[in-house]
Backbone:
């Protein structure tokens, strides 16, 4: 009983603390948009467009009506949902490339063959799953190997159900176990704790030297149908997150080499040093801070990246 009350107070204190952090993250930027809108200097954004369409706005620039509060919370949810997830996916990708260098070499060999070093990869390359099967397999494996959200959010069952002999009564709370689904050896083959893109590939009928030898195996459950959750609670940022993850992975692999740091934590220079990677699992499953080296693959690749930055108006 004492333990229970202690837990309750600790939890209440934590909830107040987290609520304060949440509010400090979402309220000031939203109020800034409202203020700038009143001054006619707000830049285009989701918040601005929603505020412009509000039916019952509070006329005071430093106050929010009920409707504006709802917009603020919606924008906040998008921000909170998207802030850590995308970057966690990229960190897992960097970890995988550093720890499994043969995978990086194979993906770069495919990109060199299909895209070449005269241009950067683009969305058209990515939309064509057949031309870059190994790259797609790397992307799938990143989402499977270390699922970003290991458990989907809790939901309530809306009618009695029976699953594999288990009775699940209406109103029961269930949490889909994304991690277990993506580690299923019956579906994905042995050693699911190893990063192995080839588990997604099957051989085509082509012969060596006659085009692609691999294709994505349609019999393996596509991890994007699992890693972003399910049903009405499915991640609303799924398509945006996938687009940006895919182009980031393709661009990084095309133009850079990702390796372990060339010095160990004691400052000694070593040729191959793979730091110990620790994953921390909570709402998000993410690697603890780690070091890695990211270097351009050649002068041609440097020129391509500089050119792309100039096109975006970014001087470097
Ligand atoms: C690789 C990146 C991402 C992954 C793996 C991911 C994964 C997930 C998962 C597993 C859920 C729970 C779904 C469920 O319970 O069925 C979720 C919910 C959510 N995600 Fe994402 N997400 C990602 C990126 C994003 C981005 C970029 C945004 C926003 C722009 C976003 C916004 C949200 C929101 C708002 C929810 C809550 C939905 C609800 O409860 O109804 N996510 N995400």
Residues:
């Amino acid at each position: 009983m004492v333990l229970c009350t202690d837990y309750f107070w600790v939890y209440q204190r934590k909830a107040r603390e987290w609520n304060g952090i949440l509010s400090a993250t979402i309220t000031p930027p939203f109020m800034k948009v409202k203020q700038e809108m009143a001054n006619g200097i707000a830049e285009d954004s989701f918040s601005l467009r929603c505020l412009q369409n509000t039916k019952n706005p509070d006329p005071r620039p430093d106050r929010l009506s009920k409707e504006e509060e709802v917009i603020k919370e919606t924008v906040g949810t998008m921000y909170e949902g998207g802030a850590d997830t995308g970057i966690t996916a990229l960190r897992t990708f960097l970890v995988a490339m550093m720890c499994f260098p043969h995978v990086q070499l194979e993906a770069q060999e495919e990109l060199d063959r299909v895209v070449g070093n005269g241009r950067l990869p683009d969305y058209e390359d990515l939309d064509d799953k057949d031309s870059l099967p190994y790259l797609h397999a790397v992307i799938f494996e990143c989402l499977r190997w270390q699922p970003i959200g290991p458990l989907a959010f809790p939901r309530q069952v809306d009618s009695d159900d029976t699953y594999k002999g288990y009775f699940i009564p209406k109103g029961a709370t269930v949490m889909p176990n994304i991690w277990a689904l993506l580690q299923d050896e019956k579906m994905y083959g042995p050693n699911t704790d190893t990063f192995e893109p080839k588990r997604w590939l099957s051989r085509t009928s082509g012969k060596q030297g006659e085009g692609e030898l691999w294709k994505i195996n349609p019999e393996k459950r596509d991890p994007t149908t699992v890693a972003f959750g399910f049903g009405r609670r499915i991640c609303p940022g799924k398509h945006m997150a996938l687009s940006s993850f895919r182009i980031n992975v393709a661009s990084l692999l095309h133009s850079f080499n990702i390796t372990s740091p060339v010095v160990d934590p004691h400052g000694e220079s070593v040729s191959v040093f793979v730091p110990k990677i620790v994953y921390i699992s909570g709402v998000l499953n993410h690697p603890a801070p780690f070091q890695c080296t990211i270097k351009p693959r050649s002068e041609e690749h440097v020129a391509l990246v500089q050119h792309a930055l100039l096109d975006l108006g970014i001087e470097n």
